[in-house]
Amino acid sequence: MTAEQLKFIFEQFDHIEVFKTFEELSSGHINDTYLLTTQSGKQFILQRINEGVFKDVPGLIANKVSVSKHLQKKLKNLSEAELKRRVLTFIGTKKGIFYYQDKDGNFWNVMVYIEGSLTFETVNNQEIAYEGGKLFGEFLNLTSDFDARKLTEVIPNFHNMAFRYSQFDTALKEASEQRIEQAKILIQNVQDLKEEMHILQNLKDAKKIKLRVTHNDTKISNALFDQNKKGLCVIDTDTVMPGIIHYDFGDAIRTICNTAAEDEQNLDLVNFNLEFYKAYVKGFLEKTNSSLSTLEIKYLPLGAKTMTFIMALRFLTDFLNDDVYYKTEYPEHNLDRSRNQFKLIESLTEQFREMEDYNLNFIGSLK
Ligand code: GN1
Ligand code: MG
């Protein structure tokens, strides 16, 4: 996108700012995100929603805006300035809606950039893990009384294991021989873990685990921190939908406890950090335990394993499909991401008993 194009799009929104410069932020795998700076020095996030992935963009925007409104209401004791740093603020268009559709049909939305905030792609200190746990835990807590019937299911079956397996099976049937050969070991891993990876799905289907309003993309880079490394704001609410808490817990764990980035190729660097796990659990349960059932807490470690597996499976499926879903930077990028997640599962599995013990002790300490 050129500065001219972004300037024009930004001008469709209702504000008094004048576009000055932009920078593309490349950490997301789906949408295109730009950081704009205006002549007065204010900053905004301008984002193009990928409508190939999100079929109902107006529904998605309505979800995000109403979740923000709900959070603002719940945190109304904060000062206005503080509230703007704790909850995403969306800017409407001059027509009074929260997205602009350009002449090519692309959907755009604008948010206030939370200045001075920090994000982490990988975590190297326990404090961040603990703060991340508190922040995502608080998000679940504050949205626990949000009326889920108001939410559009933006991606049906998003974390549905049976659905992800069927996508994988279809990809396997249609993949090139070369890609199947390259992915041989990973394909075997998928088959080996199949039964265990359906446990949570089965509990969910049997309604043994409660459906709640969940974020569904709680990787640690979707948490903002302040300069003192205290949790500030949960961002990227594109996928807020009803779900079970285990996947929100798991998505945070798979990114916080991975000693390397999600696409690190050197698998020796990819290990599961148990201390960060414990720190996250502590922060998370401090905010949520009063509303969680014993069964929910018990299955959190399996949530971490299952969510890591879902990502391994989805990256692998996309590799077999010749990379049609995620943005990739080189031909084996999805394969590397999948390998990385499987290595993380291996390291997590070696420490699984300790993860379970930690959670059980926590439940014990509540009695
Ligand atoms: C995608 O685009 P981004 O980075 O927010 C994906 C998530 C994955 C994540 C992996 C809608 O999120 O499910 O966990 O990549 N979002 C969608 O990093 O598929
Ligand atoms: Mg996302």
From TrEMBL:
Residues 22-263 form the Aminoglycoside phosphotransferase domain. One of its GO terms (molecular function) is transferase activity. It is an enzyme of class 2 (transferase). The keyword Transferase applies. Residues 173-210 form a coiled coil. Its EC number is 2.7.1.162. InterPro entries: Aminoglycoside_PTrfase, Kinase-like_dom_sf, Pseudomonas-type_ThrB. Keywords: Coiled coil, Transferase. Gene3D superfamilies: 3.90.1200.10. This is N-acetylhexosamine 1-kinase. It comes from Flavobacterium panici. The gene is nahK.
